[in-house]
């Protein structure tokens, strides 16, 4: 008898390897390796898997895989004489149970149950339609409809509305049915949305806004405290607020546009003119300040009194005749 199992075991023990060591390296379960060494092929999943396990195991041990398969074939080819052995334990003609067939059997069983239920339903319908309602219990007769079915609402309405024609009465001439007149519904006019009127800003002190249209040097004093000294460029806008007064000294009155408490006053003066102007908070009417030499200004209702003071005029270029310098008088309302 060919010794396959002892041949594999001796090779493994010569390398001082356990079945667990071989399992980690070959990924073949230790129970299958033991079955190969014991030549108990009934513990293996099948002939195809057995040949694959045997080939990999022999290659790992350094043995000839073809020699291992030859010894395996000799074992399974031995006649079955009723003795316990490899040939008695394994037969190539023995059917192998396939686990995948179980779902198919379940599906066939389920289909049989469904067909049985459908057949019973058909028999029940046939029995009820042929035997009739007489064989039913009394309490079901009042619930179930008659075999002829429920009359449709349209048929019943036609019977109720039929009018018998009297003999000898001529048919009435059919009069045309007037078509209904469609009255257009009045279109709802949209309600105008009230426009909110902006609430004017209430000034409690003095607010002066300057807009620079030409480069100008400027000094600003708010409530007696100097808060700004410097040169402003065209396009710049500055705002100062004071509780009692705001005073400006500008080196180019024609390049500074002023708005006081929301009221635009225009340019402070001419180009190149140096000018001082101050706005003081008052309780009564106030005069709007104007550049030196301007005409009279109408009285306007307000809370500010501008107080322009005399401003020095820069010296003209050499060789240019100059007019006598004038000083602007201080404009204050009576009782200031």
Describe the protein.
The chain has 336 residues and is α+β, with helices and mostly antiparallel strands. Among the domains are: 5-89, lambda repressor-like DNA-binding domains (434 Repressor (Amino-terminal Domain), Orthogonal Bundle); 206-306. Helices cover 30% and strands 16% of the residues. It contains nine helices and nine strands. It has helices spanning 5-14, 19-26, 30-37, 47-60, 65-77, 86-89, 101-131, 138-141, 153-161, and strands at 206-212, 216-222, 225-232, 237-242, 245-250, 256-260, 263-267, 275-281, 304-306. A five-stranded antiparallel beta sheet has the order 3-2-5-8-9, with no helix packed on it. A hairpin with a 2-residue loop joins strand 6 (256-260) and strand 7. Helix 2 packs across helix 3 (30-37). The longest helix has 31 residues, at 101-131. 15% of the residues are buried. Residues 81-103, 148-176, 284-305 and 307-336 have low confidence and may be disordered.
Structural topology:
Blueprint: H1 5-14, H2 19-26, H3 30-37, H4 47-60, H5 65-77, H6 86-89, H7 101-131, H8 138-141, H9 153-161, E1 206-212, E2 216-222, E3 225-232, E4 237-242, E5 245-250, E6 256-260, E7 263-267, E8 275-281, E9 304-306
Antiparallel strand pairs: 1-4, 1-6, 2-3, 2-5, 5-8, 6-7, 8-9
């Amino acid at each position: 008898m060919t010794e396959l199992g002892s041949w594999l075991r001796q090779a493994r023990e010569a390398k001082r390897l356990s079945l667990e060591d071989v399992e980690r390296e070959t990924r073949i379960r230790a129970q299958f390796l033991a079955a190969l060494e014991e030549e108990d092929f009934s513990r293996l999943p099948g002939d195809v898997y057995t040949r694959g396990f045997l080939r990999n195991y022999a290659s790992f041990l350094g043995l000839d895989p073809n020699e291992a398969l030859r010894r395996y074939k000799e074992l399974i080819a031995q006649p079955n004489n009723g003795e316990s052995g490899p040939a008695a334990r394994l037969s190539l003609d023995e059917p192998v149970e396939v686990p995948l067939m179980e779902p198919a059997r379940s599906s066939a069983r389920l289909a049989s149950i469904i067909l049985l239920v459908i057949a019973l339903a058909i028999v029940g319908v046939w029995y009820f339609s042929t035997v009739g309602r007489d064989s039913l219990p009394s309490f079901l007769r009042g619930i179930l409809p008659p075999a002829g079915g429920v009359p449709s609402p349209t048929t019943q309405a036609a019977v109720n509305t039929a009018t018998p024609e009297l003999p000898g009465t001529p048919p009435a001439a059919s009069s045309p049915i007037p078509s209904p007149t469609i009255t257009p519904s009045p279109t709802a006019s949209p309600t105008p949305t009230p426009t909110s009127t902006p609430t004017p800003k209430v000034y409690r002190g003095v607010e002066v806004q300057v807009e620079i249209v030409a480069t100008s040097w400027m000094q600003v004093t708010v409530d007696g405290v100097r808060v700004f000294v410097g040169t402003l460029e065209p396009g710049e806008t500055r705002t100062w607020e004071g509780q009692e007064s705001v005073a400006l000294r500008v080196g180019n009155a024609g390049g500074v546009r002023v708005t006081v408490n929301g009221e635009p006053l225009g340019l402070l003066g001419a180009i190149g003119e140096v000018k001082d102007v101050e706005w003081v908070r008052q309780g009564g009417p106030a005069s709007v300040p104007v550049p030196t030499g301007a005409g009279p200004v109408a009285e306007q209702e307000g809370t500010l009194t501008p107080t322009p003071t005399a401003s020095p005029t820069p010296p003209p270029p050499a060789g240019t005749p100059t007019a006598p310098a004038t000083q602007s008088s201080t404009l204050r309302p009576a009782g200031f």
